Amino acid sequence: MHSDLILVVAAQVLVISAVAAAIGVLLLRHLVCRRRVRSKGRAVLVTGCDRGVGLELAAHLDSLGFRVLAGVREPCGAGAARLQARTSVLTRLVDLDVTSEVSVAAAAGQVRRELQETDTAITDHQAMNQ
């Protein structure tokens, strides 16, 4: 009987310790996640946004407020449509096949123009508010 009581108490202590450790991990995660990177006014280029990791990353960065330039192989394809359905106006599609030098050069020009438009809009907004 005495050994059964010891086992029950040991099991309870083990469960309470596991719960306390889980709460500690969640609190630590919450504190670390509060120190996010500032997204306002920042742009990111993500390749492979038609599917998989690229699509998920682009959608996540969009949800954090980043301006996402999403490289897709087929801007009129199903993957691009899925991406646009999951993101806001902060995400722009960039026709990009990273295996083609011509495509990469054209995408670089598009990205340059997109960023210049953003810079001009920010400058115009700042001038109007002074």
TrEMBL record:
Q: Which residues form a coiled coil?
A: none
Give the superkingdom in one word: Eukaryota
- Which keywords describe this protein according to UniProt? Membrane, Transmembrane, Transmembrane helix
Keyword match Transmembrane helix: yes
Pfam families, per database record:
adh_short (PF00106)
- Membrane-spanning ranges: 6-28
Q: Which SUPFAM superfamilies match?
A: NAD(P)-binding Rossmann-fold domains
Offer one example of a GO biological process linked to this entry.
steroid metabolic process
Molecular function in Gene Ontology: oxidoreductase activity
What is the protein's name according to its record?
Answer: Corticosteroid 11-beta-dehydrogenase isozyme 2
